[in-house]
Amino acid sequence: MNLTLAGQNSCCQSADRAAALEHHLARIADAGPEAINDRMAQLDREWSASRVTRAALAVLMLAGVALAVAHSSWWLILPGVAGLLFLQYLFARDCMVCDVAHASGFRTGREIEEEKFALKALRGDFRHLPTVHDVQNPEDISRLEGEGGIVIDDDIAPGVAPHDAAREAVAAARQ
Predict the structure, then answer these.
(1) I need a surface site. Which of 42, 48, 49, 119 has the fewest CB within 10 A?
(2) How many Å apart are CA 36 and CA 96, to the nearest integer?
(3) What is the DSSP string of 79-126?
C-alpha cells in the first residue's frame, strides 16, 4: 500500500512541478525576450542534483585522504564509503546522495533541460526548423493548387497568451 501512495504522491508532485513551471514560464514570456535570455543564462549556471552529488563525493574522498595523512589511517573509511556511494551513483537507478541533493532543492538535469527547451521554444528558436508538416509531396501540392489550395500566411501569427504558450512549451519539452 505504501508503494501506491508513494506513486500517487510522486505523480501529484510532478503535476505540481509542471503547473509551477508553466506559471513561471508564463511570467517570463510576458516579460519579453530579454527575460528569456536572462533565465537561459541562469539555467546555464545552475547546478543539478547530479553535479552536486559528484562534487560532494569528490570532497569526501579528498577530505578522507587528507585526514588519514594528517591524523589517523582510520579516516580512510571516509573515502571508502564515498567510493561505494559513487559506485551506487554510477550503476544504480536511484542514488541516496542524489535524493538528498534533490530534497535540498537542487533540480535534476532533466528538469533543468526541460525548462531550457521550453524557453527556447518560447523564444522561437525552433520556428524555422522543418517539421513533419513541412514534408511535401509534389503530387499533393499540384492537386491542391489545382483545387485552389490552402493559403497560409507564415508572417501573420495569431496572438497567444503567455500562459497558453508556456503550457504548450512544457508539453513539448516533456515529449
Answers:
(1) 42
(2) 34
(3) HHHHHHHHHHHHHSSS-HHHHHHHHTTPPPHHHHHHHHHHHHHHHTTT
Q: Position 114: which residue type?
A: E
Rounded CA-CA distance 84/90 in Å is: 10
- Give the span between the Cα atoms of 63 and 46, in whole angstroms: 25
* pLDDT of the chain, 175 residues: tens digit per residue: 333 333 444 556 777 888 888 898 989 988 888 999 999 999 999 999 999 999 999 999 999 999 999 999 999 999 999 999 999 999 998 889 999 999 999 999 999 999 999 999 888 887 776 555 554 556 665 666 566 555 444 444 456 677 777 777 777 777 6
User: Which positions ≥6 away from 128 have C-beta within 8 Å?
Assistant: none
Report residue 56: phi and psi, to 5°: -65, -40
